[in-house]
Every structure is written in structure tokens, then in C-alpha cells.
């Protein structure tokens, strides 16, 4: 959780702790759209799993919120998304997670 971080200087927080803090800020602001750019970049597997769980909890408790994630991690996109918008050579293709591998191979 974030409670134990409340008295720490932000400069002393790890990348994962900063990501959680940024997500918490978005929750407090009650945004309609949550836009995340590479939410797990430079994080180890433990923090990546923690961030993904945190995002999942946010979305489960805010069904009207739209989540948009920019990521190069296709596996993460599969774990967090119902629909993937795949960019290739400047073109957008809206595809289901099940068909994304086929699109990559074309």
C-alpha cells in the first residue's frame, strides 16, 4: 500500500512506488479516462505484478472509467485489456487480444 510511504520524500521512492502514487492520484481526481504510458517500464517482475494488480483493482471498482495503456509489452496488454488497438507503420488496427499474435505475424 501507499500509507507507509506518506512521510517519505518522493525522490526516495522506487519506480514502482512512484507508479502507484501516480495511479492513486488519478483515482483521487476521479478521472473518466486513465491514460498510462508504459506503466511497468524499468520495473522488476514483482513491481510489475503489483502495478497490474493495482490497475485491475482500479478498473474493477470504476466500471465507467476507460483505461488506455501505451505499451510495447504485448503480454501486459493481454493481461490488462479487453480490446487492443495495435499500431503498425502508422496504421491503427482494432483487434481482440486473441487475434493480436496473428496480426504481429502478418
TrEMBL record:
Domain of life: Bacteria
Annotated SUPFAM superfamilies: P-loop containing nucleoside triphosphate hydrolases (SSF52540)
InterPro entries: ABC_transporter-like_ATP-bd, Molybdenum_import_ModC, P-loop_NTPase
Secretion signal span: none
A Pfam family hit: ABC_tran
Domain ABC transporter: 3-40
Gene Ontology molecular function, alphabetical: ATP binding; ATP hydrolysis activity
Gene3D superfamilies assigned to the protein according to its UniProt record, in alphabetical order: P-loop containing nucleotide triphosphate hydrolases (3.40.50.300)
Name by which UniProt lists this protein: ABC transporter domain-containing protein
